[in-house]
Amino acid sequence: MKYRLLGNSGLRVSEIALGSLNFGEQKAWGVDREEALRVLSTFAEAGGTLIDSAPNYAKGAAEEIIGAFIADRRHEVVVSTKYTASSDPHVLAGGNSARTMVASVEASLKRLGTDHIDLLWLHFWDGTTPLDEILKGFDALLSAGKIRYTGFSDVPAWLVSRAATMSEFRGWARPAAVQVEYSLAAREAEREFIPMAAALDLGIVGWGAMAAGALSGGANPQRRPADKVPGAVRANVDAAREIAEEAGLSLPEAALRWLLRDGQAAPVVPLIGARDAAQLSETLASADGPLDPEVAARLTKATAPRLGFPHDLIGSPYLQRFAFGKDNEMHPFRPRA
User: Fold this and answer.
1) Residue 102, Cβ neighbours under 10 Å: how many?
2) Which domain holds residue 73?
3) Which segments constitute the NADP-dependent oxidoreductase domain (predicted)?
């Protein structure tokens, strides 16, 4: 396992993160406590440090399992959890408000059995809470020592950009990272999030690294029947599988090594899950190895997302000629902040 700094922070995290969405038996695809602890042990033994959770994962059971695991190794683990989603149906229980933030953090600290959270994510945008309220709440928790770093998960890119700028100008702690869906099969984050993160020096944690199982090589993504997988995802999976087979790689090897390849403008920390310790070992082994640059280029081209407006327009040869002359010596076009 290699390590990297998370965005603009000094926080060192493993190049792969472990998700805990399936910890706990509240769902049919959940992992029981004993197996979840084995998964965590396997991850730690492989050098993994970044463990991600949320209060609503198995109604808090996931955080409790992680708390039991880190009890005697807190200094070796980067604990990441979220606030916003609540298992309590009451109108005041969830959302992005400072009230919810504080209550959620206090409850998470108890379940995790720790006095601080290393990385607190806003889980998803609720569309109602003022951004300065959120940022002031983050800053207060940082000053109180209850959290160490902050980030935004599943939030529009323009809001994250505004949050980073607002924090900088008001003297509040800047967010360290964003968490977005990102995989070889689902690359829509390249429209706005990847360029934004590169420009603002934000770390990227990519959930859905195996596209809910579609890139694992198995027939059934755990939480989504095969016939419910979006067509674009299926097409990308098929294209990636063909290229991987020609290169003598398994589909998981191609998918994970592509995410971890060198030379990215904004490196991504893939967030992976596992139904048991054996599967996690197989996944980690798949990621351990080189990816030929030519194969990486083929995978990139074959699964490229349509960027849409305005990217298709401003990157078109028609407008590029107006900007750089008929020979377009600046080609290929690369947006800059």
Assistant:
1) 16
2) 3-305
3) 15-302
pLDDT over 90 (residue 108): yes
Please give the backbone phi and psi of residue 72, each rounded to the nearest 5 degrees, phi first: -110, 15
Q: Which candidate, 86, 12, 84, places its Cα nearest to that of 47?
A: 12
Contact 146, 81 (CB under 8 A): no
Summarize pLDDT for 293-337 with one digit per residue, the tens: 999 999 999 999 999 999 999 888 888 888 877 665 655 555 554
Same domain for 284 and 218: yes
pLDDT one-digit tens code per residue, 237-260: 999 999 999 999 999 999 999 999
Q: How far apart are CA 9 and CA 126, in angstroms?
A: 26
What pLDDT, in 10s, does the model give residues 272-281? 999 999 999 9
227 and 264 share a domain? yes
How wide is the angle at C-alpha 92 spanned by C-alphas 89 and 95, nearest 5°? 90
Question: Which stretches of the chain are assigned E, i.e. beta strand?
Answer: 3-5, 12-14, 17-19, 50-52, 78-83, 117-122, 147-153, 177-181, 203-207, 268-272
Do 311 and 203 share a structural domain?
A: no
pLDDT of residue 320: 80
Is there a single domain that holds both residue 156 and residue 206?
yes
Interacting residues of 218 by C-beta distance below 8 A, sequence separation 6+: none
Q: How many angstroms separate the CA atoms of 158 and 335, rounded?
A: 16
- Which tens digits make up the pLDDT trace of 21-43? 999 987 888 899 999 999 999 99
Q: Which residue has the tokens 């492989």?
A: 46
What are 48's two structure tokens? 């993994």
pLDDT of res. 222: 45
Which pair of tokens denotes residue 290?
Answer: 């080189």
Backbone CA torsion sign across 58, 59, 65, 66: positive
Residues with a catalytic annotation lie at: 57
b/e map of 261-274 (b: 16 or more CB within 10 Å)?
Answer: beeeebbbbbbbbb
